[in-house]
Design a protein that fits this description.
Layout: E1 2-7, E2 10-13, E3 18-26, E4 32-39, E5 46-51, E6 57-59, E7 67-72, E8 77-82, E9 91-99, E10 107-108, E11 112-117
């Protein structure tokens, strides 16, 4: 079992930056790929990006060049650095964990709200 807790959300003006954190507890953090997802009001949850256990990162096209995912295995934490934020980035952001060798994100955090004003 893995417990995930996001933090760092808030209200920011367009063009600003936020850094989200996701702290994990439970099983060995380094055995998990970590993903970030978001859900805007009235829309389906969408993939934002992910980082593998080896540190490779992947991003959806709309955030490439603006968002950066990193992890600190010593702190059991994954980060989402968001720069040049746009109003369309407004959503609840969730982190999720995928155990190495599996193909689903089995563990999810409770989410943190990010609101970008124009």
């Amino acid at each position: 079992q893995v417990q995930l807790v996001e933090s760092g959300g808030g209200l920011v003006q367009a063009g600003g930056s936020l850094r989200l954190s996701c702290a994990a507890s439970g099983r060995t953090f380094s055995n998990y790929a970590m993903g970030w997802f978001r859900q805007a009001p009235g829309k389906e949850r969408e993939f934002v990006g992910s980082i593998t256990w080896s540190g490779s990162t992947y991003y959806t096209d709309s955030v490439k060049g603006r968002f950066t995912i990193s992890r600190d295995n010593a702190k059991n934490t994954v980060y989402l650095q968001m720069n040049s934020l746009k109003p369309e980035d407004t959503a609840v952001y969730y982190c999720a964990a995928q155990l190495r060798g599996t193909y689903t994100y089995a563990y999810w955090g409770q989410g943190t709200q990010v609101t970008v004003s124009s």
